[in-house]
Amino acid sequence: MLRLLISFLMLFSVTLFTHGASIKAVQVYTDDILLDLIKENKHLSQVVIDECQLVQDIEARATISEKPAFQFLWGDMLAYGVCIKKDIPLGLHYMREAADQGLPEALEQLGRYYHVGKFMQVDMRQAIIFLKEAASLQNLNAQIRLAEIYNEGNGSPLDFPELYAQLHHSVTDDKKIHRKISILLSDLAEKMPTRVVDMAKQGKY
């Protein structure tokens, strides 16, 4: 009942007065707003900007409502100790919960962590598993990292055409990223027969 009351109160932007000081309550994030913040990697900084007022609501939406975007945010808050006591294992648990529900950003992040050895030992097999799933959900960061991994000699050549097709049809207005994708595609194409590359360009994988 207390959690429901807190969530209800947070839905409105009101001005509170404590010891003569004016404190403006922050409106609860909607799923869409939070997803946009996550995609721009601004979710943790927004929690800090909002002076940690939504911690209880975020926890409730992650642990009780089991919303994947909030599980991801709560996991990051725990792993990095943002507004709460740091707990890396529990943070990773909630990141996995979000990944299990198919949140592309959670899948990409876990794949990246396994790739670079963040919070865990490097495990290329696990990195590829998570990144492949995120890439199939059109996560561009996962597609780029996976191409880098394949071009370094890892992964199965049987998976190259599918990733080539994904990257070839990706869209970005960032010129630096566009150039990077072009280089990755060129390197990946060298590892496949020309006819396979042509089929991938046509989206037949």
Would you kindly provide a written description of the structure presented here, covering whatever features stand out?
With 205 residues, the protein is mostly helical. It has two domains: 1-101, no CATH class; 103-205. It contains twelve helices and two strands. Strands 1-2 form a two-stranded antiparallel ribbon. Strand 1 (15-18) and strand 2 (21-24) form a beta hairpin. Helix 4 crosses helix 5 (68-80), helix 7 packs antiparallel against helix 8 (124-136) and helix 10 packs across helix 12. The radius of gyration is 20 Å and the shape is elongated.
Query: How much helical structure, as a percent, in the residues?
Result: 55-70%
Mean pLDDT: 88
Q: Report the count of strand segments.
A: 2
Strand content: under 5%
Number of domains: 2
Poorly predicted tracts of residues: 1-23
Q: Specify the number of helices.
A: 12
| SSE arrangement, N to C | HEEHHHHHHHHHHH
Computed over alpha carbons, the radius of gyration is 20 Å
Main sheet characteristics: 2 strands, antiparallel
Strand order of the largest sheet: 1-2
Q: Write down the oligomeric state.
A: single chain
* C-alpha termini separation: 51 Å
Dominant shape: elongated
